Prior knowledge:
Blueprint: H1 20-44, E1 55-59, E2 67-70, H2 75-81, E3 85-92, E4 98-106, H3 121-127, E5 131-132, E6 139-144, E7 147-157, E8 162-171, E9 174-175, H4 184-192, H5 201-205, H6 208-220, E10 228-236, H7 242-256, E11 257-261, H8 262-273
Antiparallel strand pairs: 1-11, 2-3, 3-4, 4-10, 5-7, 6-7, 7-8, 8-9, 8-10
Amino acid sequence: MPNEPVMPSVEPTRQTSATPKSAGVGVLIISLAILTVWCFPKYWYNQYDARANRYWLTAHTNIAGWQYTPIPIDKSAEKVLVADALTNGEYKNPQGAMIRVFLAKRYVENNDEIGLFVHTPDRCWTEAGWHIEPAPMELAEVSVAGLQMPMERRVFTTASQRELVYFGGLVGGQPLPYRLDHNLSVGMKHQLRQNLDKTGSSLRAGDKRLWTRVWDAFKSRRPLLGPKEFIRVSMPVKDGNLEAADRQLQEFMGRWLQPVDYQDELNRWKTVKS
């Protein structure tokens, strides 16, 4: 009887795959990481200066000895600002002095909107053709109704004009614990044309001043987001007399801006919106 052929034995192929348990652990770790990144700013940046009051600074258009003229803001600029309250215009006095003012308030923060402090004069004015004049004093403290308000100080120039500019801001009803000089180095580089193809985010990302601001904010634990206010005042410098321009701007700010209770103004705005 002939021998039956022997069929070779074939072992089933083993398929390796992650067990449901290990896959679940991976998903849990990723979820916890995302949750930590999302919640950390709300946990960390929640401190205020307990020694100081919280307030908004409100602009007065009727100032004795000065005539105010409102100037409409370009629609495209207004769209970028997304401000809930805006003041933009010029004051003139009989002696021929002129002071330009700008004030923007945002009562509610939206993460999808551009920050109110992103477009400082260091960036916008240099990109518009102004030049930053090197100055020994980049920061000034201005007294507004007994409150000390730190303001960035710059001198901008064109071929025919020299302008002294102060700008600063509030977050959560208190002055910022960090400076708004994050665009200063970038503005200087742009005006000197050191890097023509890097005038945007790539140049700012490598700027030391920007990361100094981030670190100062981290140490202070003061809010980065939330209700905020941006203020800018400027005036032409006459006869090269910067000291006189400084005195006049600071005296004017003390009369132009008045503190208003932080929560009262928020409540009034919410009532109007509702």
